[in-house]
Design goal:
The chain has 3 helices and 2 strands, in the order E-H-E-H-H. The chain is α+β, with helices and mostly antiparallel strands and 66 residues long. The protein is elongated, with a radius of gyration of 13 Å.
Length: 66
């Protein structure tokens, strides 16, 4: 039997999250059979996720920048 799994590890790229009042940067991990499903679930949780590997923002920083 073969099983496929995609793991998406997210770390907030916002400078304020790394060095600001939030303390340590926000991070999260999502697993699913498909990468697109991982990104969809992360977005539902409030993460701003770049599909091309660009900047990712945690829900807290995404609200601040909006």
């Amino acid at each position: 039997m073969q099983a496929a799994c995609y793991v998406l590890d997210l770390y907030c790229d916002h400078e304020g999250c790394r060095n600001g009042p939030h303390g340590s940067p926000a991070e999260a991990q999502y697993t699913h059979e498909l990468g697109s499903s991982c990104r969809r679930i992360a977005r539902e949780d409030g993460w701003k996720v770049s599909a091309s590997g660009g900047t990712d923002l945690c829900p807290r920083c995404a609200k601040e920048r909006a």
